[in-house]
Amino acid sequence: MAPITGVVITLDEADNIEACLASLARVCDELIVVDSGSRDATRELAERAGARVIAQPYLGDGPQKNVGPAQANHRWVLSLDADERLTDEAVQAIRGLDLATTTRAGFALRRRNFIGSRWVKTCGWYPDYCIRLYDRERTGFSDSRQHASVTTREVTRLEADIDHYSFANLSELFTKASGRFSTRAAKIMYLKGKRANALSPFVHGANAFVRKYVFQRGFLSGIDGVSVALSAAVNAYLKYAKLLEYQRDRKVRDAEDFDRVW
């Protein structure tokens, strides 16, 4: 098998980094961690696990994920988030690839998203294909500073999963949706010149719930499906409500640091 470099971006991921790197080490010959200023033991644990740690202030999702591959020793890169793990079937699928001769620029894996130990199969959370293994000489992550993905059409989907421990519990699901997720989105929209009106929060919140619960079959996942749909609605409602607040309340706007979006 052609050598692979495993890359992870981190910020205060001491609880996750060892398991993530151990997962990558099953198929990777080199490990790189790009850290954006962790104050916990992330860097020390990464180095102990055999990774090369690169210090890099956060540039946004896509630019940050391109830092490690630019300094990799190998052509093929396997990128995981710190809360993701390769399954046994993913390891076998990757080991079975002929990366030295393939014409593909990337390979996508299905992602199983969890709340606690519960795998949510609806709400658009599965199969959630993501390109994680790619040829850095032919492609890389987009320049998008949020929710970036590898940009190539020369991709093959592997019939294998990675596990994504998205949220520790339902409380975290709603806390992130109502907190930094919606605030960051509102700031980005404001800086781009987007505008909201009094109906925007309600319309977008309702649309998000219906999309997740009805069209993406969240009703089949019981209380977890309801919770994912509601958290999506809360996130959508609040990001437009916060955008409207930035537009109409100068005191709130002036108190916000728009240079710290990321």
TrEMBL record:
Annotated SUPFAM superfamilies: Nucleotide-diphospho-sugar transferases
Residues covered by the Glycosyltransferase 2-like domain: 7-94
Keywords associated with the record: Transferase
UniProt keyword Cytoplasm, yes or no: no
InterPro entries found in the cross-reference section: Glyco_trans_2-like, Nucleotide-diphossugar_trans
Superkingdom assignment: Bacteria
One term of GO molecular function: transferase activity
Keyword field contains Transferase: yes
UniProt family annotation: Belongs to the glycosyltransferase 2 family. WaaE/KdtX subfamily.
UniProt protein name: Glycosyltransferase involved in cell wall biosynthesis
Organism: Modicisalibacter xianhensis
Top-level taxonomy: Bacteria, Pseudomonadati, Pseudomonadota, Gammaproteobacteria, Oceanospirillales
